[in-house]
Amino acid sequence: MYPVEIGQSISIELKNIAQLGFPQSESWSNINSPFSRMYLVTEGEGQLAIGNETIKLEAGYLYLIPSFATCNYQFNEGLSHIYIHFDLTTNNGINIYHLFSICNKIAVNNLDVLLFNRLLMILPKMELPHHDPKVYQTKPWITKKIEYQSVGQYLEALGIIRQLFSRFINSEHEGNMSSFMIYKIQPILVYIQNNLNSDITIDELSALAFFSKDHFTRVFKSIIGMAPCEFIIRKRIEKAQFLLLTTDLTQSQIIEKTNFKSVSYFCRIFKKYTNYTPVEYRKQRINPV
Hints:
By secondary structure, the chain is an alpha+beta fold. It has 2 domains: 2-166, Jelly Rolls, CATH 2.60.120.10; 174-286, Arc Repressor Mutant, subunit A, CATH 1.10.10. Helices cover 43% and strands 21% of the residues. It has 12 helices and 9 strands. The protein has helices at 2-9, 110-122, 133-136, 151-166, 174-182, 186-194, 202-209, 213-224, 228-246, 251-258, 263-274, 278-282; strands at residues 10-21, 26-31, 36-43, 45-50, 53-58, 61-65, 71-75, 80-90, 105-107. Strands 1-8-3-6-9 form a 5-stranded antiparallel beta sheet. It has a 4-stranded antiparallel beta sheet with strand order 2-7-4-5, with no helix packed on it. A hairpin with a 2-residue loop joins strand 4 and strand 5. Helix 5 crosses helix 8, helix 7 (202-209) packs across helix 8 and helix 9 runs antiparallel to helix 10 (251-258). The longest helix is centred in the C-terminal third of the chain and has 19 residues, at 228-246. The N and C termini lie far apart (48 Å). The mean pLDDT is 85.
């Protein structure tokens, strides 16, 4: 039953799609965005680093870069690709990338090419005003919504992205996913998401799950892939990133909404996870292109 429940909870919002070529080599480092990216490389080569993994960019492959994943790009001269930027969320605030093992690179098939080209056809002129990620991800464009011309266009576009995204999901870890439903960890994740502005203790979470602290921590880590404390910090950082990019809240207000206690602690943890200070992360928003 869990594939239907989780699949129905997924919400996708398209942000941009276009084809882009590089007449000269371009590179960017330490890019960390609140939205996901999907690429179809049609010509040329390059390199993509996600965390500690280095991936070759080459024609004939699809690529997925999850939201909030720190990455480096090298687009060599002559590389051309179709890019899709999209938000991927669930109706309970859970990060879908915490539930599945995701491929970052897969071989393209004929249907993939048809779907990318069809999306380009039905949504022309959806390119970014600027292709430098250090510019576009910090501008007001990031929150602009697509104005669909019809219900049919909307349903087709979202259906295409869902189909393409499904290609990157590895076979679910049946043990983990069964545990996900058996231990009802989902309400715990929702509780964390809804209380990022407050103290969240392992005592609280284990009580909600009706487990001892040690048993809860083991179960949580086996399902989510990280300890509860680490997960909570990452969710606080994600919320801070989103607020820095999409609001004019002061740093103090963001700290209050994410419960980081002090400016020094917030800045230190934020830089540890994003490679930027909060000021550096936001500063390009000040002068929109």
